[in-house]
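This is your field. Pick holes in the following sequence-structure pair:
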Amino acid sequence: MRRQALFLAIALSLSTAAFAADAKSYQVTGPVVSVTNDAITVMKGKEKWEIGKDAATKTSGEVKEGDKVTVMYRMTATSIEAKAGAAKKGAKSK
């Protein structure tokens, strides 16, 4: 019984960590303006949305210009550069 409880606790903690690591999903729907090996451009209203893609991108069917598609994507940082913050006003200097 203890072994089952321990296994359950470990499984729950791992599944929670996996969900916390995922970035929020977004979607854009509209006609395809262009499609290349690296990106797809979709017209949403009057704006063109260019979304990068790679070999791991799942695609159902052959996507061509003019097709109406729904693209699911995530925003993930590729790099972060930290800079020192500006000094606050009213800070006393010695």
Remarks:
- Residues 29 and 70 are 4 Å apart (CA to CA).
- The two ends are 64 Å apart (CA to CA).
